[in-house]
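Form 7-S
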Amino acid sequence: MSELKPLAIIAGAGPGLGMTMATKLANENHHVLAISRSKPDQDPVNENIHFNQVDLGDRASVEEIINHSVKKFGPPKVLIHNTAQLVIKPFLDTNIEEFSVTWNSMVQTAINVCQLTIPHMLAQGEGTVIMTGATASLRGGKNFSAFSSAKFALRGLAQSLAREFQPQGIHVAHVILDGIIDTERSRERHALDPLRMMKPEDIAQAYWQLIQQPKSTWSHELDLRPYQENF
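Output:
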């Protein structure tokens, strides 16, 4: 067990924010358990990042990986839930399977990793849980019924966990990303001016600031957006 480097878990460590956050924490002297359903194009270059390709909806597999990491590196100090499943369709054309997949991807996975991680944090009396939200966490847009309903549920879950576990030393925060994250895929899809996109490195820095907040000034909800974004 490593006593020098605390363990951080990134649930949803895909390209963009997930792996950027994993790199940030690894550079900040953490062991990082990075979990994603799809393998990154390139293996992580930082030796502190320990990647596992697993479906976060598969509770038994996730539990096995987390327990193995806790045994090897010690209890987690940080959990970041960063999964997403975007469905953009008219409500009457969105079938129940698409609703189910969207909810499972963003809500069930959060339930899984939180129930498997928070007990370890409680045993230590400290820890930080951050859930990634979106514009859809606050406003259900046209053709976003599946995505918005899941993001609303995730926000409610974060509020409930904060009220339950904050008095026990666990910092639970929800971050609303009100904008498009600047990745190769999003540039192809949205054709936006990069100045109107959110840099993954800058988001990761904001998350790191949340992790470092002293107990006397904990934020629960933080909203981030590009300076040109309307709100």
